[in-house]
Structure formats: structure tokens, C-alpha cells
Amino acid sequence: MRARWHLRANALVAAWLVAAAVAAAAHRVLPASEWLMVHLLMLGGVSAAILVWSAHFAEALRRRSLPTGRRGQVARLAAHTVGAVAVIAGMVAPSPRAVVAGGAVVGIAVAWHAVEIALAARGALSNRLGWSTWAYVAAGASLVGGVVCGVLLARGPATDAIAARLYLAHVTLMILGWVGLTVMATLITLWPTVLAVRIPEGGVRFGRAGLVLMGSGVVLSGAALVVGARVAYAAAVLVVTAGIALSAVPMLRAASPRVSGSRVPGTVAAWHLAASVTWMASATLTWAAFVATAGDWEESRQRMGGVVAALVAGGAAQVLLGALTHLLPMVLGGGPHAVRAARDAVERRALARFVLLNGGVALWVLPTPSLVRVAGSMFALAAAVWTLAAIGRAVRVSFRTRREAPADGNPRIVPVQMAAQLPTVRGRGAALVAACALLLGTAAAVAADPASAGVGESAAAEVTATGRTVEVRVEARDMRFTPSIIEIEAGDRLVIEVVNTDTTSHDLVLDSGQASGRIAPGESAVLDVGVVGRSLDGWCSIAGHRQMGMTLAVVVTGGDDAPVAEATAAPTPSGVHGEGEHATIDLQAPMSGSPFDATLEPAPDATVHRVTLEVENVMTEVAPGVTQELWTFGGGVPAPTLRGKVGDVFEVTLVNNGDMGHSIDFHASWIAPDDVMRTIEPGESLTYRFVAERAGAWMYHCSTMPMSLHIANGMAGAVIIDPPTWSPWTASMCSCSPSTTWAIRAASPTRTRSRRRRPTWWSSTATRRNTRTTRSRQRWASACACGSWMWGPTGRVPFTWSVRSSTPCTSRARTSWVAPGIPAPPVARRRSRSSRARADLSS
User: Theoretical Cys-Cys bridge with 220: which of 236, 258, 607, 809, CB 3.0 to 4.6 Å?
Assistant: First the structure.
């Protein structure tokens, strides 16, 4: 019964952890991703685990069940889950009412939990460690206060100073109070159990004193925040650090060879627990130092990013994973053989996971270059997911071992030597591989952006100093450096004052290896470049900011650098920065011309549609500031959208006014393209007639070889054939999303790049409208895909289709149809007389 309860309860914990891992992996596309990752882990997974395991330890230490028993625990877990989901959904939506309601439910559930533990303490038999359960009560009170601060913070305080103090109060109560007190109180009992030793002499005294110090520090920090005493708040956080250190004294004594009989802890659970306490102590010490040296409350809040990350990932997440690796095999039971089998399963390559997790967290939270931080976070995430998978495997092994028990019911016979053998850490070879992976990942990240790591060619370039100093003020805002170009005489000394007027952190890194360091919003930094003898490139090294346009150029005049650059520079398309594969686009620069009108007109009443498409070469702005000669049907990209009904006849006349051979291939037709859609030379024309027999949205394009190149340079459009019976809809829209390819040293795209399906630029012609719409989307450059919705009297009806070209000479098209009341088109197949135009179509 106990095993079943813990399996189900911890399945809920695992679900929260998986959700947090998914959010971390997809944080680029999620709203409020940083907040979401932290709260899925802390408010969801860690809090649920605390509700489960603090009740377990309270019942074990008090030797009596909680007043409401298992039903009460189920009710509290359910209430906590509903409340946490409401808080998270309310913040993402956003919905302040959902945040308030969810926070209230979570607070009530945890307050009920704390009252239950307090009632269980009354009348219980006194024992050596029963007093530690009062720390669970204090932790529950801390969470209630933290929830109140979080709700007030979500509603938007009046000033930045009040918001900063509420944030610090929320983090203090939730991490140091709710999580910290629970963890350190549990480790007093759990740590000797993990090491299989007795509590060392003086362990109870040190543990009690440490918990009292931690609780006092949390209370004092709350009082200091209320009165606005920042130095007193830093001192209170330092008191919490002293409490953690004092509680860790019996842990060190228990792990000593004199007590444990081993030089190192024998299980990975012990390693995780020890590392989590180390992270908590070092992070809170850094916390106190940051607050004490900050200029005001807002600066204190801005400095908390790395500290919170260390406490969440290195402390809370790691202690949860370490506790689960030890406790789950025990509570699942099944006999000594099943417990040992589950332990062996979870210990497999465990040291490698430990190295990846802690090494990744260190790279993430320490002041390393941005790409190194990204690499570290990915290593830590991979290790956490790997550990969850190992725990799941241990659960399966435990149940499988129980099913394989002897049928006669006799116990398994285990040799005395095996039974007495102490567990040892396994996977040292895999741990060495993990350490090498960390080193290689760090080296690759530094190699990808060496300047951010301080590696680069000197800015002086052996120029003679002039003795002049040039000071320039550069603002970082809206993903731009303003000014983005600095001109300076060769030999002058350059001093850049970088002022961050944006709402997010930035930095400035030069290719000489000099960097400003992270600059918080509203802050500034002075970057002394020194004597400049060559042109320099600069950028923001935070992941993604450089690609969004945060670049800076220092242009040297009057020296040898500029003439050489002008003599060797090759012509590039206007607006392209960089060379070859490293060309970038100014994503926020305006484009000339008016936006594409995506409105799709209804199908004409006529049953015969006569269309003339003239091939023209047109110089077009394909990206902000980038022009290219496109090959077009009708003078524009995308080509004109044709529309009709099933049974209509299309007579299309193709007139080639270009400078090379072109053709046209309609996917809506069912005719072999060899003759009627053949290539025509410049100055020629060709009339092509077909009957629209199948409803859907179809692509048409130039099929002259190399076909992928002609499509990539703009020669594609859409044909929309309405179903034979269809209710009228409100409005419709056709959106074509082409990928444009250009060569840096040529005025037209290259065949190699288009065949590799590596477009330089991808854009969409869609326009946002408030009407119910029909949308079709095509993706070009050797891979085409369409999707559409139609809005009728019964609501929005989706039907999707796709056309994929695997090589320039073969293609495969699949059409799927979903529409109430309209039968799907029959399965059809066409085969051309030429191997160049082989295609299969199926519905």
C-alpha cells in the first residue's frame, strides 16, 4: 500500500519535472520562459515533493500518522496541483484573477499541511529527532508569506523599489524558507541513512542550532525588507548562510572515514545531496555580498539572476533528484533483492550524470561568455533528464524483480559477502567522458565567439599612438547600438561609455577580446579600448542579440587599415553585412514598398479562365536593404494567385520576356508536363490548357532545370480550386512564405545553396486581419508546404496539403482533406512519360 502511494505521488512530481524540462528546452518560443521554468520546477515539482516527503518523515519521526491520514494528503496534493496550474496559466495568459485564486489555493493547501504536522507533534512520544518536524511547520508558514508577496508582485507594485523588495521577499521566503528549512531539516535524518551510519556525536545539537539560525535569518530578512534596511537584509541572509554551514557540520562528520568506514560517499545520492548543500551555502553567501555592495534595491534585484539559478538548479533540483534516487527504491520495497536491483539500476553511470549536472550548472551561473552559459545550461538539462530516466528505470527494475521472485515463496539466498558489501560509486570511466564533454563543449562555445572570452587580435595593430583620447557614448536599446558606427583616427585612444536604456541586459564585446561585461537595464559601463590601429567589429554576446542586429563597427581612418580593406573588398548586395555563410540581415530595418495584400478574391463566375503570365526579370528588395534580380511570373513575388472551381477550364499563356528559358508546371492539372509545359526560349510564348478536376490549394512553378534554382528565385505561385459544393465564407486570405537565396558575391542565387535547402532569408506575405480567413501557405526552395483554413457557417474547417520536392527531378505530393459534409477526393495517381516529372498524388 505504501509503495503504491509513493509511486503515484511521485509520478506527479515527475510530471512537473518533465514539464519544467520541456519548458527549458523550448524556452525560446514560450512566453515568460524564465519565470515559467523556475515555477514549473519550484512551485510545481519541488513543492509537490515537499508535501509528499515531509509528511513521510514527520510520520516516521513522530511515529504516528497525520490526523487526516492518506485522504488528507491526497486532497492537499490535488489542491496544490490545481492552484499551481492556475498560477502558471494566469501568469502566461495573463489573468490576474487566476494568479490570485491559484496562489490562495496553494497557500491554503500548504497551511493545512503545516497544521497537520503541528497537530501530529502534540501528544506524540518524545524521541531524539522529533523536534525537527517543527522546521516543516516553519517552512509552510514561509510559503504562505512567499505566496502573498508573489501575488502582490504579479499585480504590479507602485514603484521599482517596492517591486524589488517584494521580489527579494518572495525569493527569500520561497527558497530559503520553504525549500531551505525543509531540506536541511530532512538531511539531519536522511544523510546518515544514505551513508548507512549512525548520527555522529553532536549531530543533533549542531542540526538544531543550524535550523534555529536559518529560521531566525528568514524572519530577520523579512523585517529588514519591511523597513527598507538593505544592509540589515544582507546581514540576515548571512545568518541563513551560517545556519546552513552549521547544519552541514554533522554531515561532514558522518562522511568522515572514521565514522563511515569509506573515504568517499558510496552512492550518487550522497554526492548529489552534498553538492546541493554546497551550492546553497555558496549561493546564499554570494547573495549577501551582492545585496551589501549594491547601490539600491533595484540593483540588488538585478544581481540575483545567477544566485537564483544556482539555488534552483544546483540546490533545489539537485537535492530532489538525489533524494529520489535513494528514497524511491526503499519505499517501493519488494525485499532486499528488489531494493538492491533498483539501487544498481539507478547507480549505473550515475557519476557521469553528477559531473554533467554540476559542471553544467557551474558554467551556467558563473560569469562566463554567453555561449558558454548556453552550453552549460544544456549540459545540466541533459543530466537532469538522464537522472529522471534512470529513476524511472529503477522503478521498472524493482517491479520486474518482484515478479521474478521464487514461486515457492522461499526467500532468495544471498552470499554473506554480498550482503555485507557497502555500495560504491559506479561509472568513473563515464564520468571522465562527461568531464571531457564539458571541456569540449566549453572550447566549442569559446571558439564560436572567441572575443567574448577575451581572445582576439590587439586593437593597436602596431600603430603609433597620437596621444589623443576619443570618448563616445553608445546607447543599447531596441536591439541596437546607437550609434552603430564609430569613426576614429588611427593611433587615437578610444573610450566607449555603453549605456543600457533597454529593458533587458546587454553587453558589448569587441573582436579584440575586450568586453564591457553584462550591463543591467538602466546601468552603464566604460570600455577602454586603448589605442586603435585597425577597424574593429563589436556585438552583444548574449545569445541571439547579435543575430537580431546588435552590432557595432569601429572604423579607422587615416591609417593603413582602411585602404587595404577597400582594395580587397568584393562587391556584395546592398544591406548584407559580413561574408559568405556569415552574412547577416538587419532584421529591424524598414523595407521599401507597401506590404503584400494577402486578400484572396472569390472565384470568378466564369467557367473558363484566360490568364497571361509574362516572365520578367525584376530587381526586388528581398530583405531589409538587400536587392536581387528575381525571375518572376507577372512581375512580382509571389506569382499571381489563380482561383476557380472544380470543373473550370484554365487557359494560361506563358510569355517569356526574360533572358533564359523558362516553363510552367501546374500541380492542379492532371496532364503529363513533357510537351504542354515544356521550356520556351526568350521571346517565345506557349498556351497551356487544363481542366481543374481536384479541389485543393496547389502550387505552380517553373520546372526548367535546375528547377530548385528557378523556384528559389521567385518563380512560384498558388492555384486554389474550390470544392464543388461549399457554403459561402466571410473572407479569405492567401499567404505565401518564400525562402530567398542569394550569393554574397553574385547578383542571383546559387544552385548549390538552393539544392541544399538552405535559404538565406525566409519571409511571409501574410497580413494580420480581424476577419475570418482562408489561408494557404507555401514554402519554396526545393521544399514546398501548404496549409489552409476555410471559415463557413459551421465554423473554421481546416484542410491541409503539402508538396515536397526531394530532388530537382522527382517530387511527391500528398493531399489530406478534412471538411464536414464534403467527401474526400478519390485516390488518384498520375505518371508522366518522362522520368523528370514523376509524381504520386494520394488523398
Answer: 236
